Amino acid sequence: MYNKEKVSIDERHSITSHERSRDMKRSVFHMLFVMACFCLLLCGAWSNDASAQSSDSDVEKSLALMKESLGIIGTIYDYQAIFYKHERINGKLFPEEKIALKWMAPQYFYMRFEQGEQKGQELIYVEGRNDNLMTVSPGGAMGMMTLDIAPDSDMAMKKNRHTVPEAGIGPNLTLALTTLEADLQDPASGVWVEFFESVSFHGEECYLIRMHKNSYADLSEVYISRDTKLPAGFISYDENGELLEEYRYADIQTNVGLGEIDFDLENEKYDF
Question: What are the tens digits of pLDDT across the range 56-99?
Fold first, then answer.
């Protein structure tokens, strides 16, 4: 009886010891599993973060190309082009507009809206003239009724994200370059850059500079013609991937000999 009881007690001790060993193994396995999962998540996060870092080469190429393009623009004393403008204003995406654009140094602008909500409208702006007001003709039956308004007035900005003096290949590229340079100097900036040697943009072979998480937009793209090294387009998207603005330039003709008459209200070709 004594021996039987002793065996029973020994068995119970053996069973308890076995259970403890099994529980310990489970705990160790669980801990190792959790650590492995954590390591995988950490490695994945590191990998994603690493993939979101621009290479020094892409940054250098992007900065160099934009500066080269601005240098070329600096040699241009006039140009005319077809300017396509597609903008989201106060949450509303307006239809794309097609604009005949003339520009002459230092700051002469003529625009005629040929497509979009402002079709038929014309405007002339010359820095330092007319108290720095732009003259606008609504076009159509009201073409003879002109208005002098400030480029940054509420009326002027109602359907525009930028003022007229901020339009054109020079100001657009300057904004992109200065934004990138400032972001690269900011330790808190999350900007990273991709550089593509050749992409097709509306039928033209271009360089593409893609700036992610920059301070101007969640994603900004700069297209520069491989042929002329002049800007061909600028596109920006918000954090939801929705278009903020797209500016495209076609048929750019430089140094064509524009003069004062091209920015004169008395020009017989205009409807002021």
Answer: 899 999 999 999 999 999 999 999 999 999 999 999 999 999 99
The pLDDT of residue 117 is: 86
- Check if the beta carbon of residue 133 is closer than 8 Å to that of residue 149: yes
Q: Examine the domain organization and report whether 34 and 168 are in the same domain.
A: no
- Examine the domain organization and report whether 43 and 62 are in the same domain: no
Does residue 173 sit in the same domain as residue 253?
yes
Angle of helix 169-185 relative to helix 56-73, nearest 10 degrees?
A: 150
Residue 167 and residue 41 in one domain: no
Q: Which of 186, 187, 198, 191 is closest to 220 using CA atoms? A: 191
User: 112 lies in a domain?
Assistant: yes
Whole-prediction pTM value? 0.80
CA distances to 48, 114, 116, 131, 233 from 85, in Å: 35, 11, 9, 27, 10
pLDDT-based confidence at residue 130 (cuts at 50, 70, 90):
very high
204-212 and 219-225 beta bridge pairing: antiparallel
Q: Tell me which residue range forms the domain holding 61.
A: 56-116+151-263
106 within domain boundaries: yes
Express as a percent the part of the chain with pLDDT over 70: 78
20-44, pLDDT tens digit by residue?
555 554 554 455 444 544 444 444 4
**Rounded-to-5 percentages of helix, strand, coil across the chain:** 40, 30, 30
* Residue 193 forms part of a structural domain: yes
| Residues 65 and 112 grouped into a single domain | yes
